[in-house]
Amino acid sequence: MYNYMLSRHCFLLTICLKPRRIAPTAVCSVSCYTGPDADPQLRERRGANKNQVTKRRRKERPSCQPVLDNFDQQYSQELGDLWPSARAVLLDPYSWQYGVMLNRFSAVTGITQILQSQGFSTLLPQNSVSPLLCNDFSTISNSKHQAGKDSPFPPDYISKFPPNDFPLQPESSSHVLPQDLKSEPSLSLPRSTLQCYIHPYPLRFPSQAHRPGQLKQYYLLNAASLLPVLALNVTDGEKVLDLCSAPGGKALAIMQCATPALLCCNEPDPHRRDWLSKTLESFLPPSLTSRVTVSAQDGCSFGQSETGEYDKVLVDAPCSNDRSWLYSSSSQQGEQRLKERARLPALQAQLLRSALTAVRPGGVVVYSTCTLSSSENYAVVDSVLNDCPEAEPEDLWEEIAVPLSKYFTFSHAHPDLDTPQKPSLRPLNGSSSSNPRRLGILVVPQPGRTWGPMFLSRIRRRK
Ligand SMILES: C[S@@+](CC[C@H](N)C(=O)[O-])C[C@H]1O[C@@H](n2cnc3c(N)ncnc32)[C@H](O)[C@@H]1O
């Protein structure tokens, strides 16, 4: 039943033992593409044999012209100079990077060695995971820590290729590298038990197949997906709601950061909820099941049923998924998506309002999307703040963007104001915010830093 988890990367490493460029695949329409572990097409590949998978991978999928035309028109206005290079990244899936988020509930030492030997380094300042914590939780995980035993690679792989002789080398040196990527992560961020490894090149680590009775050791994702979780800053004992939760990447990240008293993962779509449950089951130990629940409500009405119940709420809203939409399977599908796009801001605003009702006075809501579109980002936050006087946006620029600016390219200005790179202090059309930077920050994919798109905004409910 977990055959679909056998990733293209695992297969490539097993068979070819050399890095490969992977052809783009389309993913779900209004959801967040967080990486191979979050790719619904992998689910559809259940039962596909390796040769079938290879054939599909080799077939390049062209981008969808109506979507590209629409993006060109909108994003050249909204992003200015950043758009041509963001466009180039979005149109070159071979340049896309993936982060490897380790699972602190599983034994990860061997994986860490392998990652480091391949040139991966940690994105965040590390707070060591207490062995006691690991032992407590990893009741069904393998306690052997040696590289090769816990590794996703074939058994003789490590001995054939000792760490300094790994066959996986960067494919090309043409990508612009973030400066001093290999140096220590910024110390301005608090130390975290959330461990994510990234590589300066688009090198893919294999997804991990299901191992009966054992927790998965890592989850592959777009590293920008971690930023909303960092902004949420969950601490032990808090009650947390993940309002739009499937497939569960951010819920897993929350559980890497802290042990909340409750994490309610809400997902109304039955198919996606099933996927969410499987993700949680594959990464979290049974001892946590009473703290992590799955619910099936319409997020728009969640706040009415559980008013003021939560310390923290994440709204990782359904949105136009820029990466995925560019690879719509046909022009008609692309056009249909663009038509439906107009309805998204109203849904997103409803979800955000509902979240602000579900959070307790003094608590915080993080709103995020994986689109560059300002009408689903700044405009949604702005409209909700306009009729929610008890909600106050918090500035994430110093807290998140500045310390992580060597890994991600951030934009913070509203499109109506100045250029994206230059913050403006002018008010937004008479809106409640006097500083557009405070409405949120946007990760814009750029060559060598292909993470994103990801918009995030943090709002505190005052009373
Ligand atoms: C961007 S995805 C969430 C990704 C997820 N947070 C993660 O990190 O893996 C948005 C999710 O919102 C769900 N959704 C759509 N409409 C919703 C609604 N009215 N209430 C709650 N969730 C909804 C979608 O089914 C989808 O799974």
UniProtKB/TrEMBL annotation:
Residues 418-439 are annotated as: Disordered. Gene3D superfamilies: 6.20.240.40, Vaccinia Virus protein VP39 (3.40.50.150). S-adenosyl-L-methionine binds at C244, S245, A246, P247, G248, G249, K250, E267, D298, D316. The keyword RNA-binding applies. PROSITE patterns: SAM_MT_RSMB_NOP. Residues 147-462 form the SAM-dependent MTase RsmB/NOP-type domain. It holds the Pfam family Methyltr_RsmB-F. GO terms for molecular function: methyltransferase activity; RNA binding. InterPro entries: MeTrfase_RsmB-F_NOP2_cat, MeTrfase_RsmB-F_NOP2_dom, RCMT, SAM-dependent_MTases_sf. It comes from the Eukaryota. Keywords: Methyltransferase, RNA-binding, S-adenosyl-L-methionine, Transferase. GO terms for biological process: methylation. The keyword Transferase applies. The active site is at C370 (nucleophile). Signal peptide: none annotated. PANTHER family: NCL1 YEAST -RELATED NOL1/NOP2/FMU SUN DOMAIN-CONTAINING (PTHR22808), TRNA (CYTOSINE(34)-C(5))-METHYLTRANSFERASE, MITOCHONDRIAL (PTHR22808:SF8). Belongs to the class I-like SAM-binding methyltransferase superfamily. RsmB/NOP family. This is SAM-dependent MTase RsmB/NOP-type domain-containing protein. It comes from Pagothenia borchgrevinki.
